[in-house]
Amino acid sequence: MSLLVVGLSHRSAPVSVLERAALSADAQTKLLHDTVAAEPATEASVLATCNRIELYADVDKFHAGVAELSTLLAQHSGVGLEELTPYLYVHYEDRAVHHLFSVACGLDSMVVGEGQILGQIKDSLARAQELHTAGKLLNDLFQQALRVGKRAHSETGIDRAGQSLVTFGLEQLATGIAVPAWARGKKALVIGAGSMSSLAAATLARAGVAEIVVANRTFDRAERLAEILVAADDNAVTARAVRMAAVPDELTRADVVVSCTGATGLVLTAESVAQAVEGRTGQPLVADTADTAVRTETPQPAADENCPLDLAAAQPGFSVMGDAAVAGMDAATLEQHATWAAGGNTRTAGGRTPEADAELITALAATAATVGRIPERRRPEPVAERPAPAVFLLDLAMPRDIDAAVHRLAGVRLVDIESLAEASADAPMAADVDQVRRIVSDEVAAFGAAMRAAHITPTVVALRTMAADVVAAEIGRLHGRLPELDERQRGEIRQAVHRVVDKLLHAPTVRVKQLAAEPGGAGYADALRTLFDLDAETVASVSRAEDSTETKDRPA
What is the reported pTM? Predict the structure, then answer.
């Protein structure tokens, strides 16, 4: 059997696809049951977070496994297979181990180094154990991933490379102001009482908000979170719980709103946000539209005489010089323009000389000859300055809780998963990332060696069992032939024969374990079974016995 992972994440798919493919708790349960019921897989676990959906399985056939897992992901996510396939990635064997260990260390997170993923991996394993879809391979894999993640955080400064998604989101809301200074004295509304919402509430409390209101569909969980916040020693926040029906009223009081629920539909619509803020400020809330935006058009130079480019057709907002002038043009036209520009026919633009324009256009022509056409690049158009936000909203849910149309409301600042993905693309990487990558590589090698060594253990056990049976049979035959031997003499003979067999088997069994632990060592188990004519069913029974013992001894 072999490890396979099929999934999609913020690195492979746009947020809009991730949002549609998000799996509810019930959908995850059904996916796990259907995966282990499928022919290629015997074990399965789902890792589903706000920016990734991954299905891990122990399969006996690679191609059949990829096809089956991809189909099941599409079926349970509700996104068609043809649409989902371009965004899926596949990792197999050691690459799958490397991927999960990297995820556990925060290397694959939207915010590099964040530690919340460890809790999500732990929850994923617990769910698979509860549903009895995790066997020896996935139990060992996920537990080792948790240990690797903890090692990375304890031995390196990976935490400095990034923060939790919550902290990063609050920094985006604060826009350059230190979060404690920005949050001090504000009133916060937290919608949801799960792990992400709890983290957000605790972070806001430590940052110095004056009040936190927790709303949740299960009121008892909201009350429990509020009690924990009040009892914490590291903050002096006032906290209370409300029912979801009270959210519209609480919106009119809140300065900061964080939402992360498991709802499949919108929790806050653009209309409800606009009404709440209007109720708070007494002023109607308007949306920024293309009609109300104020534009500053760049004066366009007159078309240059004999220029092969149709500059007169250039749309407002485009430059007519350099790379912007040749956007969308093919290689032949670019070469003509380069020749024309090299003759000193162009006017300077932005301080560039005609020669510089000619060199730039020639380089673009070479690019166009390779990739086809230069993509169109539009100059950003200035818009009217937005008023200072009256309310800040952070949406950490997948699918989203807050209508994306809220982005267009003046006086409101919304940060959601999509905007976080864009912001994190430019986040600096810490030097400790390289050290964590080395840790991951070392741990993958060690895990692979341990798995390969474990693969041959049942064969070695079966060999020693066969040897013990041979010794027992020969001692019994000796006793029949020499009945005059007393018990002391029989014991001496028995020990001598056992010592001979043990010494003969010691070196080859130790060496075969070492060889099997190396890459490509899987064939040594087959060789051992062939050389000693070991019964395959005997070896399989040893494996089943070991699995049964591990399951029995595993703590609940």
Answer: 0.62
